[in-house]
Amino acid sequence: MKTSQLVVVTTTGWNKIDGKMTSYQWKNNKWEAVLKDIPIVTGRSGLAWGRGLHDNFLNKGKLKKEGDGNAPAGIFYLTGLFGYQDISSKMNSLKVDQRTFCVDDVKSAYYNQIVKSDTIKKDWSSAETMRMKSDVYKYGIFVDYNVKPATPGEGSCIFMHIWSKSTAPTAGCTAMTEANILKLISFLDKSKNPVLVQVPQSEYHKMKLLYKLP
Predict the structure, then answer these.
(1) Pairwise CA distance, residues 4 & 119, whole Å
(2) Is the peptide bond before 39 cis (omega within 30 degrees of 0)?
């Protein structure tokens, strides 16, 4: 795991929805906090381990599955941005429209992929529109979960995005206010290989030793 940017999300327990986010930059041979204790919400069921950059032996107990309402726990690259308009940032970004979908049908060849419905032959019965009627996906960040290749049924369409309201959990993503996601977008830099570390606090204390986290 080569990175000089960390985004750390922790909650107080596996089934807890509310949590905190702090971002760190590697500077002067140490991790320095940049954004501190930003309020976030996770999936409606909390967190569950998902396959990522962390060691597989950690994936025990509560495991992420399609449609379970859990946000994935573990370590994952943040690979780009998406939004309703072009985004000025140090990350690659995708402008989405009414024809942009994330496929969550486990039988589809495009499972857990972002597709344009006018450029490919539809083979799915279920997909998430990326151009919502609300501002939830006005700005978003792609979490590199269950990719290369995607395993059907392990979960799909995992993002960081704007929350609909502070008390409302997501279907499996991590959400925050628009102002805070804009701060996070401004912080992220693809040249620094930004990584999301997302776990309950009890697990984070163990992972700090394993991965020399702040």
Answers:
(1) 37
(2) no
Distance CA 160, CA 50 (A): 16
- Report DSSP letters for the chain, one per residue: ---SEEEEEEESSTT--EEEEEEEEEETTEEEEEEEEEEEE-BTTEEEE-SSSS-GGG--SSB--TTS-EEEEEEEEEEEEEESS---SBS-EEE--TTEEEE--TTSTTTT-EEETTTS----S-EEESS-SSSTTSEEEEE--S-SSPPTTS----EEEE-SSTT--BSS-EEE-HHHHHHHHHH-BGGG--EEEEEEHHHHHHHHHHHT--
Tokens, residue 135: 């501002």
Please give the pLDDT value at position 168: 80
Question: Tokens for 127?
Answer: 């997909």
Nearest to 137 by CA among 90, 184, 198, 95: 95
Q: Which residue, chain included where needed, has tokens 């807890």?
A: 16
Find how far residue 204's CA is from the centre of its chain: 17
Q: CA-CA distances (angstroms) from residue 198 to 5, 59, 160?
A: 14, 13, 11
User: Cβ–Cβ contacts within 10 Å for residue 47, how many?
Assistant: 29
Q: Say what the alpha-carbon torsion angle 8, 142, 124, 98 is, to the nearest 10 degrees.
A: 130
Mean pLDDT by 10 residues, the chain (214 residues): 94 97 96 98 97 95 97 98 96 97 98 96 97 95 96 98 83 96 98 98 95 95
| Pairing verdict, β 18-27 and 30-41 | antiparallel
